[in-house]
Amino acid sequence: MRALRDAIVDCELIDLPLKGHRFTWERGRGTEQFVEERLERCLVNMAWMELFPDATLTCLLAPVSDHNPIELCTELRVHNMKGWKFRFENSWLQENEFSTIVKRSWEQAVDVEFMQKLQICSNDMDKWGRDY
């Protein structure tokens, strides 16, 4: 167990907080020996947290098991500076000009991180989509 703890520290992993019930395992409900523990976990690093800043980990109920499953929800959100939420339109894929817009936008953002590149590309797609 110590080796696992050392590996978690060495890799700078973060244990995502659990929403809902705090424990994922139980034994002896209704008895004096009732025990609850959090066994299931989700460990991530800072790069992952930057990619999925709004991720949530929720403890679900399992009525026929002593283990409760956990659900990891990630939602990649792309917003411009005004808080507007980008929405991709599948119909854009049918337009010949669309792939040119995306390729130009992606190649234009050379020395930026992935999320910034995605932001630039989504802004260009939105601008193009308004005229579409």
Can you give me a brief rundown of this structure?
The protein has 132 residues and is an alpha+beta fold. Helices cover 35% and strands 15% of the residues.
The termini sit apart by 58 Å
Strand content: 15-25%
Residues in helix, %: 25-40%
Described by the principal axes of the CA atoms, the overall outline is elongated
Structural class by SSE content: alpha+beta
Number of helical stretches of at least 4 residues: 4
What profile does the largest beta sheet have? Answer: 3 strands, mixed
- Detail the poorly predicted runs: none
| Sheet with most strands: strand arrangement | 2-6-7
Gyration radius, in Å: 22 Å
Query: What is the H-and-E element order?
Result: HEEEEEHEEHH
Number of E-state strands: 7
Walk me through this protein's architecture:
By secondary structure, the chain is of the alpha+beta class. It has helices at residues 2-10, 46-51, 96-108, 114-131; strands at residues 14-15, 18-19, 25-27, 35-37, 43-44, 56-59, 70-73. The strands form three sheets. The protein has a three-stranded mixed β-sheet, with no helix packed on it. A two-stranded antiparallel ribbon has the order 1-5. A two-stranded antiparallel ribbon has the order 3-4. Strand 3 (25-27) and strand 4 (35-37) form a beta hairpin. The longest helix is centred in the C-terminal third of the chain and has 18 residues, at 114-131. The protein is elongated and about 70 Å long.
